[in-house]
Amino acid sequence: MKVTYTKFIQDINRSNRFETISRLEVDCSDYRSDNVPLIYLKKRLRLLDCTFKNNKEVKFVFTTHQLDEEVEVWLDNSVFEQHVIFNGIEESNEQKINIRIGKCKFNEGITFTRGYLNNISFTNSETKSINFFNYGNYNRIEIGTKNNDELEPQNKIRIDGVELSIKDLILYVNNQDINIGSRKKSDGNLTSINNLTLEGNNGGDYTVDIQHTKIHNISIDSFKNKGELHLSNLIIEKATNEENTLKLVESRLGVTTFKNINLSKFDKIKIDRTDLSTLKTTNASFVTGKNNIELNNDELYDLYNDLYTAAKNKNNKFEATEYYKASKNVLLENMLLKSVNIIKSHRYIISYIILVTAPLSLSILSILLQSKFLLPIIKPLGFLSVLLLVLPFFIVDNFASILSLQVSKIYSRFGTYFPQAILSTLIVSFGFFSLMVCFSEYHLEVDRYKFIAYWIQYINPVHKVSFMDKIIEGTVKGFSSNPLFVFFDFVGRIFISIGIFETVRSFRRFV
Questions:
Q1: What are the angstrom distances between the C-alpha of 200 and each of 146, 149, 384, 417?
Q2: Which of 4, 117, 212, 396 lies most in the core, judged by the most C-beta atoms within 10 Å?
Q3: C-alpha torsion 166→170→172→176, nearest 10
Q4: CA-CA distances (angstroms) from residue 296 to 272, 299, 325, 331?
């Protein structure tokens, strides 16, 4: 059956019931863009196996005519030879009109403008382009079909407009170019999306570009990106009565760029089975000190390693340093958690540190006071501290690794801060030098200011063990023959060498 566009609209408006129009051929030659009739929706309208011919463009303007209940427009297995524009002109329509498009073909594309509509579903259909332009409020927009790679790809999806607001935007990408937002906009005119979801496959010749948009939540789920994905200049707005969330789940990001996005605005970041080693970030760093990433320690370590690799690949030394430091912190925490219970308790850890460092503190105090009053306490504590240092190697899992990581953290924040490395080296060297001279009682024989020169010599890790023997006159026994002197001299060399290594390592990180 053939009818004109005007007759088609009139027939719809005369109906007061559920309407199914099938096998209709509509001639749109009489369509005029300056005089578009309204379609008064009563309950439900279904177009089945219809064909719309002639004219370059045709517009459907819907209104519910003050109807309280929701209505649905269902386009099913129909063909539109011209560019189709959908419009819901009344703001009261935004919670009422649902448009469902399935198994349709739009030869010249489809546009929603001034769309005060509720839900839009576009599935199993072909089109040259899908556009959402100025002035519109949408509750839910769903484009594409999940887990369906057999359909012909749509050439382009474009969503951009002044005062354009979308609550839920779900895009099942099927090898197509997608543009959301424009290149330059003022904050007041940005497209606003509460929840953005990307799923599907992006082929090698296609680009998904999302920019200059206000967004609350982003979910990239089961997304295989062989083309390019760019997220830039996004404003993360605080969601009302809910947490802002970024989800990267079971996705292969490929060439993905985050640019000018304040990721710290997200209350939660969930990353699951997604490799970030190829991710490129510019002014969009994952905050390492904020507990907003929902991962266990093993997964968090892998995440920071991926981010470190990505930052290193783009030669961003600042980000690489932060992610490297964060990964080592997580690794250390993970090892501590997996060790024996004694090391899990902060109380025991503090007690252990106090006992191990007590001889060091008392030795420094004894030197400053130039007194042997503390020697009876220092010597037994010294033996106890040596025992305590050795004991964890036998009772704590991975203690050697834990010790090396902890030492690196104390010295230089894992090789990232050379002023701390220099200061730590000086403090540690003075501590071991104090132990060495206290156990030999050297500080009781010579003025305490005179051994400063020997401390400076001691900082050189290749000094001779007998470098202090020459100051003893009239004695047969020198310091180099004192076992404790030699022991602390040897241990001190090790820690001084570590300090020098950490200093050079941290200094070179930015060079």
A1: 7, 8, 63, 43
A2: 117
A3: 20
A4: 11, 5, 17, 11
Tokens 């009239």, residue located: 474
Neighbouring CB atoms inside 10 A of 479's CB total 23
> Is 432 among the domain residues?
yes
Q: How far apart are CA 33 and CA 470, in angstroms?
A: 106
Show which of 143, 166, 183 is a domain's final residue.
Answer: 143
Q: Which amino acid is at 460?
A: N
CA separation (Å) from 372 to 206, 440, 468?
79, 11, 20
185-189, 282-286, 338-342 — which one is most confidently predicted on average?
282-286
Strand partners, 270: 247
Q: How far apart are CA 488 and CA 475, in angstroms?
A: 22
* Residues 157 and 178 sit within 8 Å (Cβ to Cβ): yes
The reply to whether 460 falls in a domain is yes
Question: Which residue, among 166, 161, 162, 102, has the nearest Cα to 140 in the 3D structure?
Answer: 166
The encoded tokens of residue 75 equal 């386009």
Given a contact cutoff of 8 angstroms between Cβ atoms, the answer to whether 488 and 466 are in contact is no
Report which residue type is found at 84: V
| 406 membership: H or E segment, kind and range | helix 399-412
Angle, nearest 10°, between helix axes 452-459 and 418-439?
A: 120
Identity of the amino acid at 203:
G
Q: Taking a C-beta distance cutoff of 8 angstroms, is the pair 314, 280 a contact?
A: yes
Residue range 267-305, pLDDT digits in tens: 888 888 888 888 888 888 887 766 678 777 778 888 888
Domain span at 84: 1-143
Domain membership of residue 20 (yes or no) is yes
Comparing CA positions, the residue from 169, 165, 171, 219 lying closest to residue 192 is 165
**Which whole number is the average pLDDT over 117-146?**
85
Encode pLDDT of 389-407 as tens digits: 666 666 666 777 888 888 8
Q: Crossing angle, helix 346-369 and helix 375-390, to 10 degrees?
A: 140
Q: 248-273 pLDDT, tens per residue?
A: 999 998 889 999 999 888 888 888 88
Better-predicted residue by pLDDT, 20 or 95 = 20
Question: What is the rounded CA–CA span in Å between residue 226 and residue 195?
Answer: 24
Supply the pTM of this predicted model: 0.76
Q: How far is CA 219 from the centre of its chain?
A: 12
- Output the CA–CA distances (angstroms, integers) from residue 331 to 128, 269, 301, 325, 495, in the order listed: 51, 20, 6, 10, 22
Domain count, the chain: 2
What are the Cα distances from residue 328, in Å, to 270, 297, 344, 409, 415? 21, 11, 18, 9, 10
Contact 253, 228 (CB under 8 A): no
Q: Any idea what DSSP says for residue 119?
A: E
**Final residue in a domain of this structure, among 97, 124, 143:** 143
Q: Are 73 and 117 in contact (CB under 8 A)?
A: no
Q: What are the phi and psi torsion angles at 117 (to 5°)?
A: -125, 165
Kindly tell me the sign of the dihedral angle through the C-alpha atoms of 280, 284, 289, 295: negative
Contacts of 470 (CB under 8 A, 6+ apart): none
